[in-house]
Fold this sequence. Notes:
By secondary structure, the protein is an all-alpha fold. It is built from 37 helices and no strands.
Amino acid sequence: MSSKEVKAALKNARDAIRNKEYKEALKHCKAVLKQEKNNYNAWVFIGVAAAELEQPDQAKGAYKKAIELEPNQLLAWQGLANFYEKSNQTDVKGDLANVYHKLLELYESGDKQKWCDVCNKLVELYHQEKKYLEVAETWQKLIKMKQEEGAEKAELHQLWKKMIQLLKDSTQNQDNKTEQLFLTAFEHAVNSADPIPGEDHQNLYKDFIQCLSKFPHEMPRLTKACNDMMALYPTVSYPLEVLCLHFIQSGTLSEEALCCFSRLLEMDTSSGPGIIGFGIKCFQEKKYKEAVKSLTEGLQKTSKCPAAWHYLAEAQMKIHKHRDAVLSCNQGLEALQTPEGPSLRWKNLILQLKAEALIKIADADAAEEAIKALEQIADASSDPVVLAIRGQAYLNKGLLDQASKISQELLLSHPDLAESHALQGFIHYSQKNYEQAERSFLNAIERKAETAEYHQYLGLTYWFMSDETKKGKALTQFLKAAKLDSYLGSVFHYLGNYYRDIAGDRSRARGCYKKAFELDGTDEESGIAAVDLSVELGDMDTALSILNEVTQKASTGAAKWAWLHRGLYYLRTGQPSQAVADLQAALRADPKDANCWESLGEAYLSRGSYATALKSFRKASELNPALVYSIYKAAAVEQILGKYENAIASYQQILKKTEDYVPALKG
């Protein structure tokens, strides 16, 4: 076959392909290859025809043969790309990417539009495969090509925005290089927008800042972006809020952070992060009640902030609201489940604080929950402070052997740690080994003198020692504990005991009990002592103010002691109707209190309600048959009501038990 005949055969093959006569095309090509086995065009046409006849292996082989013959000719590469694009096989994507790379190389010096088309296809392929680094690098090449071609600013802006879209899903499992390319795309998009300022640009800036806030190590870049956005949009609070949240999550509060909190609150007094920041400032200044108030308010608006929940729980611990602190820790752990919640560090801190709060609640169930919390802390076994907390949890649960084992291990491995000695002290104290407890608490105080709890327990140790001379030492320790922690209600309770029972200073004792009760509203003993001492001191105003405050807050069936005390006061001062109401409230809390029924009978009698008075006295004597006075009063009321036979029977019943009970004889 002459070269003229070869050309004619190739022309026939091309025409056959155009007319979709693929078998015919194959015949012409094979005829050419018999003559010229390395004919490039013949192999390309075989590739096209075989692909259309669904002979993939033959098609691929033909294209590859053509490429082998002429590696820098476009036709075979284009055909192979077309073949792979139409292929249903999933394993060809890697090969297709290689083909696209070769086409980019071949188009680079010539057809720029085709280069861009192939580039788009390659990016789409990588994106499907979630190969985000390759997506970023290839798209950046496309932008560079457009810049060299002199593309308009608006077109480049759209390309940077497209790159952001392509990479936005990559933040979950991003390597550092992809992350940097992603953030660079944002920076270019923000800086190439037109007009500035404008709504689209503002939203883009927000997205950029939100993205930066997910990378803790990008703090300088985040600060710059927030400051740049604030300069452009001085009335928009978003960048300041992000910056404030970042400072809160970092756990270190610099002057810059405090300045941000103030600026944000000036701009928006209802801003969640701003209010949280103010709460943290209060916490640092040891204004714990204000801290709790602000942090609670801020977290109602911005709840997905684990660090803020931790600060709130810490503030609640400082004022000994241990159950509240546990709830705050649980909220903090929940917030860590969300995508915004970073770091193992906060998780460990919150779990440790939760365990400490549960130990202060001091019952077996809370101790069990504390142990579970400690088990979730990463590397807990290597942290001696966490081990000491675990020892306390075992002690609260009644597992003395486990607690003692931890204590002994800590004293050997960490003899200079205050917590090691304190744990040993708590164990001795629980066993009433007061002399050993004294030694342990003194050792703990020597290593950490600013811990109020150690002074409190050393004081309690002295208080319960049989040697009365130790009571003075107890006073010294209680006063130190109260000075170190002015919210420690139980210390003020014992100071009250000291001044009342040892020093005989009723006025000072009353002040201490009142303070103890103000700090811990569940401490009824202190409340009752404060009221009783106020009455003894003739200060009814103070007694009533305490009782009024308690009864106002009390739910139905609660605070019996307060209702009873106030009811008796009203009874003594000739206010029977108020006495009836209060004594009824006391009985709702404890319907089986015979003395309370007796007092209620007196109140009804004073009011002239004889029938109900009679019922009350009878109820009292039913509940406690030894209450002779109630039986006598019931008889006296029956006498008033003219029920003489019943009255006589009741009087005789009393005289059988108590022959010389004068009121009954008189009756």
